[in-house]
Amino acid sequence: MEKGYFITGTDTGVGKTLVTGGLAALYKSRGVNVGVMKPIATGCKRVENHLVSEDAIFLKRSAEVEDDYELINPISFEQPLAPTVAARLSNTRIDLERVHTAFDTLYDRHDFLLVEGIGGLLVPIDQYYFVVDLANELELPLIVVCRPTLGTINHTLLTVSYAREHGLKIKGIIVNESVENEDDIVKKTNIDEIKRLTDLPLLGMIPFDTRLDVENFHKETLLKIFSDKIDKDIII
Ligand SMILES: Nc1ncnc2c1ncn2[C@@H]1O[C@H](COP(=O)(O)OP(=O)(O)O)[C@@H](O)[C@H]1O
Ligand SMILES: [Mg+2]
C-alpha cells in the first residue's frame, strides 16, 4: 500500500478539501492512523494574531488528529491569491524547508498521509516552482478531483497529461459535484469519456449534498457518503 496521496484538482473549488477530509474520515473509520496536511493555504482568516485556513481546520476535524495546526498548515496567507502573488504582496517568499520539515514530522507520526494541493498543478509556489514540483518532491501518487460538468473533459485530460509528463503516478480520479447539477446525461457521458481517454480508474463519484459543506459539515454524513461512494477495493 502507498504511504499516502497528494490530492490535486482540475481547478480551485472542485472539492479537493472535501475529498481529502472525506478520505481521511474513511481511513480513520477503518482503523488507519491517517494524517492530513494543507502545506500552503491562501485566503486565510485572521484569528487573534494567527492566520487560520478553513481547509486545514476541516481536514484536522475530519481526520480527528491532534497534530499542531502549524504542522498541518505550515504556510498561510491572508489574501485569496496564488501563493507567489500572496507572498510577494506580503514581502516574503515561501519557505519550502518549513513545508518539508512539517511533512517529514507528520509522515513519521502517521501510517498514511493525505496532502491537499493548492489550486491545480500549475499554480506557482516560487518563481519557477509549481504545485506539480511539490507533489513530485513529496513522492506521493496523485488523486485528481474533477467536476462532472461541461468542460471537465478538457480540464481533466490537461491535468492528467501534465502530471504524467512530469513523471507523477496517478492513483485515479474522483468526480465531485461541488454545485448542484441536474444534468445526468452530461455527468454520465463525461465520466465515461474521461475513463476511456485517461485509462485511469474512477475511484468514486461524490454527489452534491448540503451536509457536505466544508464550513459547516456533518461528520456522520461525510463518512457515510464516502463509505458508500468510494471504491474501497482500490483505495484501501
Ligand atoms: N459534494 C459536495 N456537496 C456540497 N457542497 C460541496 C461539495 N463539494 C464541495 N462543496 C462545497 O464547494 C466548495 C468548494 O469545495 P472545496 O472542497 O473547498 O474545493 P477546493 O478545495 O478544491 O477549493 C466548498 O464550499 C464546499 O463546501
Ligand atoms: Mg481547498
TrEMBL record:
<keyword id="KW-0460">Magnesium</keyword>
<dbReference type="InterPro" id="IPR027417">
    <property type="entry name" value="P-loop_NTPase"/>
</dbReference>
<dbReference type="InterPro" id="IPR004472">
    <property type="entry name" value="DTB_synth_BioD"/>
</dbReference>
<feature type="active site">
    <location>
        <position position="38"/>
    </location>
</feature>
<comment type="function">
    <text>Catalyzes a mechanistically unusual reaction, the ATP-dependent insertion of CO2 between the N7 and N8 nitrogen atoms of 7,8-diaminopelargonic acid (DAPA, also called 7,8-diammoniononanoate) to form a ureido ring.</text>
</comment>
<feature type="binding site">
    <location>
        <position position="17"/>
    </location>
    <ligand>
        <name>Mg(2+)</name>
    </ligand>
</feature>
<keyword id="KW-0067">ATP-binding</keyword>
<keyword id="KW-0547">Nucleotide-binding</keyword>
<dbReference type="GO" id="GO:0000287">
    <property type="term" value="F:magnesium ion binding"/>
</dbReference>
<comment type="similarity">
    <text>Belongs to the dethiobiotin synthetase family.</text>
</comment>
<keyword id="KW-0479">Metal-binding</keyword>
<dbReference type="GO" id="GO:0005524">
    <property type="term" value="F:ATP binding"/>
</dbReference>
<feature type="binding site">
    <location>
        <position position="55"/>
    </location>
    <ligand>
        <name>Mg(2+)</name>
    </ligand>
</feature>
<keyword id="KW-0093">Biotin biosynthesis</keyword>
<protein>
    <recommendedName>
        <fullName>ATP-dependent dethiobiotin synthetase BioD</fullName>
        <ecNumber>6.3.3.3</ecNumber>
    </recommendedName>
</protein>
<feature type="binding site">
    <location>
        <begin position="116"/>
        <end position="119"/>
    </location>
    <ligand>
        <name>ATP</name>
    </ligand>
</feature>
<keyword id="KW-0436">Ligase</keyword>
<keyword id="KW-0963">Cytoplasm</keyword>
<comment type="subunit">
    <text>Homodimer.</text>
</comment>
<dbReference type="GO" id="GO:0009102">
    <property type="term" value="P:biotin biosynthetic process"/>
</dbReference>
<feature type="binding site">
    <location>
        <begin position="13"/>
        <end position="18"/>
    </location>
    <ligand>
        <name>ATP</name>
    </ligand>
</feature>
<comment type="pathway">
    <text>Cofactor biosynthesis; biotin biosynthesis; biotin from 7,8-diaminononanoate: step 1/2.</text>
</comment>
<feature type="binding site">
    <location>
        <begin position="176"/>
        <end position="177"/>
    </location>
    <ligand>
        <name>ATP</name>
    </ligand>
</feature>
<dbReference type="GO" id="GO:0042803">
    <property type="term" value="F:protein homodimerization activity"/>
</dbReference>
<dbReference type="GO" id="GO:0004141">
    <property type="term" value="F:dethiobiotin synthase activity"/>
</dbReference>
<feature type="binding site">
    <location>
        <position position="42"/>
    </location>
    <ligand>
        <name>substrate</name>
    </ligand>
</feature>
<dbReference type="Pfam" id="PF13500">
    <property type="entry name" value="AAA_26"/>
</dbReference>
<dbReference type="GO" id="GO:0005829">
    <property type="term" value="C:cytosol"/>
</dbReference>
<feature type="binding site">
    <location>
        <position position="55"/>
    </location>
    <ligand>
        <name>ATP</name>
    </ligand>
</feature>
<feature type="binding site">
    <location>
        <position position="116"/>
    </location>
    <ligand>
        <name>Mg(2+)</name>
    </ligand>
</feature>
